[in-house]
Amino acid sequence: MWKTILRRILIMIPEIIILSILVFLLAKAMPGDPFTGSINPKADPAQLHHLMKINGLYDPWYQQYWNWVVHLFHGNLGNSYQYQEPVTRLIGGRAINTLWLALFTTILTYCIALPMGMYAAKHEGKLPDSIIRVYTYVTFCIPFFVILVIGVWIFGFVLGWFPTTGSISSTATPGIQSVGSRIYHILLPGILGALFGTVNVVQYLRSEVIDAKRSDYVRTARSKGVPEKDIYKHHIFRNSLLPIAAFAGYSITGLLNGSLFTETVFSYPGMGLLFINSISYRDYTVITALVLIYGILNLLGTLLSDIILSIVDPRIRIQ
Amino acid sequence: SNNSSSSSNAAVKFSTTYKNSDATDKTATKNGTLKLALVSNSPFQGITDPQLASNASDSMAFAPGNLNNLFKYDKNYKIISGGLADQKLDRSAKTATITIRKNGKWSNGSPVIAKDIEYAYEVLGNKDSTSSQYSSDFENIEGMAAYHKGTADTISGITMPDGENGKVAVIHFQKMSPSMQFVGNSYISQYIEPYEHIKNIPIAKLASSAPVRKNPIFTGAYKLDKVVEGESTSWSPNKFYYGKKAQIGHITINVVSLNNIDKALQSKKYDSVVPFPAASLGGTDYKNLKNVKGFTNVGEPSLGYSYFAFNLGHFDTKTGKNVEDPSKKMSNKSLRQAMMYALNVDQVSKKFGNGVKQRANTLIPPVFQKYYDKNAAGYALNIKKANKLLDDAGYKKRNGSKWRSDPQGKPLTIHFGAMSSNATTEATYQDYLQQWHKVGLNVKLVNGKPIETNSFYDTLQKPSQNTMDLWLGVWSLSSEPSQSQLYGETAPFNMGHFATAKNTQLINKMNDSSAWNDKSRTKTFKDWQEYMNSQAGVVGEQFSYAWQPVNNRVKGFNISPANDVDFYSNLTLTSSSMK
Amino acid sequence: MESTSEFLNIKDVSTAFKINGKYYDAISHINLEVHHDEILAIVGESGCGKSTLATTIMGLHDPAETKISGEVDFEGTNLLTLNEAGYNKFRGAKIGMIFQDPLSALNPLKRIEDQISEVMDYHTNFTAEQKHDRVLELLDQVGIVNPKRTAHQFPHELSGGMRQRVIIAIAIACKPDLIIADEPTTALDVTIQAQILDVLREIQKENHAGIILITHDLGVVAETADRVAVMYAGQIVEQGSAEQIFNTPKHPYTRSLLRSMPQLENQNDDLYVIQGNVPSLQRMPHEGDRFAPRIPWVPESAHEKDPVMHVIETGHEVRCTCYKEFKFPDEAEDVKA
Amino acid sequence: MEENLNKHSNISAADLDRLTKEASEEATPSSAKIIWNEFKADKPAMGALIIVIGFILFVMIAALFINTPKMMETNIMNYNAAPGSNGFLFGADTGGRSVGQQLIVGARNSIGIAIGLTLISSTFGICWGLISGYFNGYIDWGMQRVYDFMMMLPMTMMIIVLVTIIKNYNAVTLTFIFSIFYWEGTSRLIRSRTLSESEKDYVAAAKTSGTSNFKIIFKEIMPNISSLIIVDTTLSFAENIGVETGLSYLGFGLPIQTPSLGTLIANANDPNNITQYWWTWLPAAILIIILCLSISYIGQVVRRSADASQRHGITD
Amino acid sequence: MSLIEIKDLKVHYPIRSGFWNRVTDSVKAVDGISFNIEAGETYGLVGESGSGKSTTGKSVVGLEKVTSGSIMYKGKDITKKSNRNHLDYNHDVQMIFQDSLSSLNPRKRIEDIIAEPLRNFEHLSKDDEKLRVLQLLDIVGLDADALYKYPHQFSGGQRQRIGVARAVATNPKLIIADEPVSALDLSVQAQVLNFMKKIQREFGISYLFISHDLGVVRHMCNNIAIMNRGRLVEIGTRDDIYNHPLHIYTKRLLAAIPETNVSQRKAHREARLAVEQVYREQQDKYYDEHGDAYPLVQVSPTHAVALPEALAQQIVQEGEVKA
Ligand SMILES: Nc1ncnc2c1ncn2[C@@H]1O[C@H](COP(=O)(O)OP(=O)(O)OP(=O)(O)O)[C@@H](O)[C@H]1O
Ligand SMILES: Nc1ncnc2c1ncn2[C@@H]1O[C@H](COP(=O)(O)OP(=O)(O)OP(=O)(O)O)[C@@H](O)[C@H]1O
Ligand SMILES: [Mg+2]
Ligand SMILES: [Mg+2]
User: Fold this and answer.
1) N or C: which end of chain A has fewer CB within 10 A?
2) Residue E234 domain-assigned?
3) Cβ-based neighbour number of residue E291 at 10 Å
4) Cα-Cα-Cα-Cα dihedral sign, residues A135, A139, A142, A148
């Protein structure tokens, strides 16, 4: 099993290299440079050229790429031009925020979606099922940011239940209070994200359960005299939940995508917002690093899913 | 009140001060928290060192620390005594002598010393410095050029008569400039660096170092308690502050996005926003916020303005000078004037500015009360005149075309460059295009749509470009009003390459020896404004107010530049909860 | 063969499925008895209702989609009147069932041991240890060479024959009186089929159980069955002891089936082919002899209007009197010649 | 041998026509017919179908009568005019432009993008999935690596980067950019079905009948997964209508001169507009939801008719 | 010369494992088999599930990539694709599949299904083609109205006959029939077998008849090969195999055939158990040290068995004594 995982990771390496070159080139191809944006009378263009030069921005791209790779092997992703800070540290701080939020959203998604999906499937075709299906349809059809914007407006401003910006209150003292404050800040984005994220899980789970309900092994269980309740517990739910567990890895992709929106709407300083800002500042180093990190996270998500799946499903267990 | 706005078409009048008649509630003040919002769409960067910071968010986020400002100044930004240091200029000796007050201390209790002044120049001019604020003007300081190149280890032109730990620093210039009297000039830094605090850190790494980001020290009324990266700062009184002691127990500053600020203030999440001379709550915000209960609005003319510029030549990289090109499409003065007369900026300002914006009648904004020519006519809507100018200059509709062609009879298409922004600005662009179409000029947006900021400046900063014939740009100004860096003959930011002899002469005059005389300098500025208006090479579009609502529990809120140094120490609260 | 008491008595059972809102009989008016210590084979072509009969006895039909009438008298209880909980007392405990497809009938995610002991969870009060021992015992009993190892494996790790043995182990775990085996060997090779049938027989001997063996393979029937019921189009058309059915078949359908088997004697001849097809549920005729369309040369008059079972000798019953006049077309010619 | 065959046949050429005719009368309904029957049997689905088709037609035709440049002319005097005022039935937006007209043109543009995107990405994804699923070995391996790579790319980020690079993009370019990233889902689905379909004996039969691989893929396998293709395409169409809105919200969507449902809904990014000027964004949002709901409902019906056991309509 | 000569055919499927996922082992689905099929005969291939029958069949028809060995047809080795293309091989060699439903494309009408090989190999005019299809339908006893129907509208037996019609469309010389009747009911099975025989009689087609049902094989085949784990264990005429089986594996297969004579079932069962007993006890005698079958040795002109020479002779003699 470890061997297989290791092999999978090795296979990823060329993909990551190609991605890095691609991203690097694309970032360079964007019009402007990190210093154009800071146009104000105090900034002497000569000084900007000087800065461009000492940052090697006039070198040919392969040279720049090579330098970047060399630095990368020293654990250095370069400096952010905008934030004048090592990219690793900058992203490190933001990544924690994004991952907090993502983790919370994931947990919440499953807390909401699992009962919903199972309930709907158990009462297939009846009223609760219809209601849940309508819910999933409608949520599927509303663009994510609309959910966010309206959520912020209602729960943040009108009702004032939740904070609307940031990741932590500025006055929270370290310790319990600051953890509490962090949780308080991710509640609303987390709930809204989860509301959106449930759609896939509910639909997937529902069809899994319905398939399982009709399967031969459930008929076998019935013929063993297992009561209906236990059939659901031991056979149907268990068998349909396992593939859902593997879904968690794939959902990383969706969460990361969503982070661009959630963080923008909530001014939540995570990687998504950092990306949007860095785009307008042409902060190459940050853009490159973020795309690469998101790409790697996507890869790891897939890997994670495969691993979970191979753990829970004996049929595809990796030796 | 210290109302600087007397422009005829501004609908709203702001006071720079919120005169709160309630009594200060001592306990509420002592235990309370003043909550300020920092309006920005992106997290602030967290660079507390103002010389290294590259955008305004940081200076707002760390404003209660007073950003290591050396000088106190008056409402015209002229340096006066009474700040952390006093400055004395000696024109004959070509020196500036800066003397730190005896009780000047950093917020960690250590004294402010002469080396702190000198080190500011070293940080700025170091060859590895990441600061983008260095400009060739600083090479007016003796030895600065050598230091910047890396051939000298120190700046020979800065001396410390009492030694590094003394209180006096003397700067030797090659040439004195009247602008040195003003804060924000490009010869004398207004900042100091806490040398002892940061001396062990290579200048190249300063911006990312802990003393700058994690545990910075300040000279202002408040000291930093905590910074949540990119999001918020919180402050408490600095007991080492030399001046009036700070009174409010805590100040917090939180980043709030432009989209959310109205709602945030309406729902009383903040007392006010961090005051900043060029910060802008726009006209729409004003419309939404002007009547919110419990708040009073204060404002002063902004340090920024928007302008139309025409592409008139190119930048000669060899000589380092802007050169006009008579063959350019927009070289015809009548054409330029006609285009400006065709616009109804007044209407736009009224509609979208809701009174906090007004048509710019000149290129010096009203915040510079002394220099601003309030009587300049500028370009108010006058279609008839526009048509006449065009007709007279030979821009006629030929062969039944609905568009005017150029005097040679060739079809004329003018490319208008505009930056992408919010819906109202983009509606404004459309309005301008329509106005130009009304006088028969075929004006089109470059690429058919507003251009994203970076691409916009990327195009304009090329030494020579033909993509944009005219464009709408924005300046946020330094508090020193000289124009050489914007419109000077050698200024790379003179992106329209407007460079007549008269212009060069007037701009030089702003800073030559005659300018030491305030009256004479004022006249030069007015002459220049008149000249610029007549040439229509660059024409102001809108001036605006830097305004903000203040909750009525706050007392002592005065955003006049003259109060800048003491702004935070003057604040108190009249109640523990927001009104 | 100690007792031959009947313990399952199926009386007039019909099962109808709802298709497009209408009910169609898949089996109609079935009467059958099963005795201890016997193997009753039910044979018939695909689609004639064999599985439906089995699942009806087991009560595995969704009541919303099916309509069942009649009586299934199992040791004095009419199963059809039971509720779900009541039924569960019988399923697995008194009645075991073996399904056709051995792969899909096992839960792919559970170990063999868990699947076998599950049935004991509900019908015995064994301790975990006892259950474990019993599982190994059962696996051994059904002829698995290494019970310990197999108990730990997952279904996909076993071959088809082994899976079928596991299913048998599940069915007999609680020593049921009745085992219903629905085509237990169809998916298997001849050699394995023979082994599985051996296992079934041994178990029956040990438990004195009655077995209903559903199959369409006449060879299997001939080898294993004590009594045989031949089904056609939802009805039983002939039943009797294995000897009666194979040596003196009466019903034209039974005779046709037997005749279409490749035999040593007619090696180079064509095989006999029954004309036409088994009618689908919606096209099932509800009057007259359902087999009549497939033997058109038999005169109309030979068929009863409402065919009933006729007793020919003890235990041997045939539906409809057409058997009396039935001759294969070529035989008829032979007679003429 | 040829004679042998003929000996067996007593069919004359004249009979041929008659037989052909008789046979074709007995022919089973095509899948289109089955789907149609399904719609006839399901009233709400019929309603949804009519709404969608009717709306698309309306928008396409009505948009022809709207002079877009004229419509997009600003009139700042009508700044956010309320519905019913100044002759604006649906109100006006910040630029004083009719929301009603923008809805029509915007819907046309959004639907256009959705159609284009669905066509391009589905066609590509289907071909990719078919080819990759049919051939095993290096072709499949290579195609799977490309697929893996595409899956790794953070979609929205890449689109934003691309949109930033391409200075002069419009609806068409945007459609193409989206297409780069939207074929994966389809290709994955199609591939897995193709894999299982390729195992079936009719493929082997076609091979032994001398049919070329290309023909087997597109003439044998593809029709067999056509119901899957139809369902997937319908559902992606529903999804694609909303694709551009998100980017417009982030400010990387269509330029303001090209109205779309996305640019309209993006008006909601200012919380003030949410209540104060609700007409600038709400109708577009509702429109998207209704369209998307109807289309996904249609997708469900199509899916049902593809699955014979769930059909409501009588087909026999 | 035989119609088809199969020589030392091997088909191995790679098993990948280890860190680099390299081929470390292989499934020897077919592991060196040789036999010839004569024109006009039905050659039976019998064995347990997984013994490699289908793989052999697919290799002969060209659907499987062969690892080594040769299959000669008209003097050319058709394991090479170029040779197959050159000969229009599948014009002459066709296949009937086990699962009649899956072997007919459910989206195609019968006309198109049957015409498919015609369209590829014989470019006929539209009318000629239709005529041929009708003739073919006629041959397999289906009505003309079948033309426009879809496969699912037919019963299993009818579908299998359609499969036969498609296979004979190009007048092939050899048809590989891979368990053509094992999914069918008894009565339907009879139908299909009858048609196959009829067509053979009329067109002189050869069959490679693959089955694990020895009853059916006996009914159909003149020559029979018994396959066990990728190798042949016994080859012979019908009489050789059924009446004089030599290899224990063959005997075991034969013993497992259910006895239809009810009165003899007890005896039959005992006989079977006896064979099983021998099979279990004497495995090492009949298989080599790897558990594989030995190479074939000829014991009579028609009969060969995979045993060491000496053992083969011994068993032959024992058999004669018994007989
Ligand atoms: N759930 C159901 N709904 C509708 N019709 C059904 C259902 N189950 C079975 N049938 C129909 O009932 C008839 C009898 O089916 P059944 O499965 O009992 O036949 P069988 O004799 O077991 O056939 P096989 O040998 O193929 O298993 C068939 O025509 C079948 O199509
Ligand atoms: N594509 C494949 N990859 C790996 N192994 C295979 C493949 N195809 C067949 N095998 C293996 O080759 C062996 C022979 O398979 P084959 O299908 O030829 O057997 P068979 O005799 O036809 O069996 P059956 O009677 O079940 O059809 C089996 O062990 C099978 O698992
Ligand atoms: Mg059945
Ligand atoms: Mg096979």
Assistant:
1) C
2) no
3) 10
4) positive
User: How big, in percent rounded to 5, are the helix, strand and coil portions of chain C?
Assistant: 40, 25, 35
**Interface membership of B493 toward A (CB under 8 Å):** yes
Containing structural domain, residue D270: 32-66+95-310
What's the CA-to-centroid distance between C51 and ligand 3, angstroms?
Answer: 4
Q: What is the pTM of this model?
A: 0.82
Q: Check whether residue E319 and residue E188 sit in a common domain.
A: no
Atom of ligand 1 nearest to the CA of C281: 29
Handedness of CA B90, B92, B94, B95 (dihedral sign): negative
Residue A27 falls within a domain, yes or no? no
E228 in any annotated domain = no
Does E235 reside within a domain? no
The rounded distance, in Å, linking the Cα atoms of C258 and C193 is: 20
Name the closest-CA residue to atom 13, ligand 2. E29
Domain that holds residue A209: 87-316
Q: Is E250 a domain residue?
A: yes
**CA C92 and chain centroid, separation:** 17
Query: What is the interface pTM, i.e. ipTM, of the complex?
Result: 0.81
A105 found inside a domain? yes
* E171 lies in the same domain as E311: no
Hey, where are the domains in chain C?
6-94+176-336, 108-172
Task: Reply yes or no on domain C6-94+176-336 having CATH 3.40.50.300.
Answer: yes
Question: What is the CATH number for E190?
Answer: 3.40.50.300
Q: What is the amino acid identity at position A117?
A: G
**Integer Cα distance of A142 and D18 in angstroms:** 56
Q: Which atom of ligand 1 has the smallest separation from the CA of C100?
A: 27
Chain E residue numbers with beta carbons less than 8 Å from the beta carbon of D16 are 127, 130-131, 134
In chain B (579 residues long), the average pLDDT of successive 10-residue segments reads: 40 81 86 89 83 80 82 87 89 90 89 90 85 81 88 89 89 88 85 89 86 88 87 90 88 86 86 81 81 88 88 86 87 90 87 83 87 87 90 87 87 88 79 89 83 78 85 83 82 84 87 83 89 89 88 89 86 86
How many domains are contained in chain E?
Answer: 2
**E183 CB under 6 A from ligand 2?**
no
How far does the CA of residue D266 sit from the closest CA of chain B (Å)? 10
Question: Is residue D10, in this structure, part of any structural domain at all?
Answer: no
Q: What's the CA gap between B47 and B55, in Å, rounded?
A: 10
Rg (Cα) of chain A, in Å, rounded? 24
Pick from E169, E191, E221: which residue ends a domain?
Answer: E221
Question: In sequence order, which ranges of D42-87 are alpha helices (DSSP H)?
Answer: 43-64, 68-71
Per DSSP, the three-state class of A85 is: coil
Q: How far is E158 from chain A (nearest CA, A)?
A: 29
Which token pair is B173? 């210039």
Q: Reduced to 3 states, what is the DSSP secondary structure of residue B423?
A: helix
Q: Is residue D7 part of a domain?
A: no
The rounded Å distance from CA C109 to ligand 1 centre is: 28
Residue type (1 letter), C219: G
Concatenate the DSSP letters of all residues of C187-236 into one string.
Answer: TS-HHHHHHHHHHHHHHHHHHT-EEEEEES-HHHHHHH-SEEEEEETTEE
Q: Is C119 on the interface with A (CB under 8 A)?
A: yes
Range of the domain at E102: 4-221
pLDDT in tens, D57-103: 988 888 888 777 676 666 666 677 777 776 677 777 776 777 888 88
Calpha distance B204→B123 (Å, rounded): 9
A213 assigned to some structural domain: yes
Q: Residues A204, A244: contact at Cβ < 8 Å?
A: yes
CA-based radius of gyration for chain C: 21
| Of C249, C284, C237, C229, residue with least CA distance to C39 | C229
- Find, among D249, D223, D289, the residue nearest to D55 by Cα: D289
Task: With beta carbons under 8 A apart, name residues in chain B contacting A165.
Answer: 231, 254-257, 260, 264
Residue A177's CATH number: 1.10.3720.10
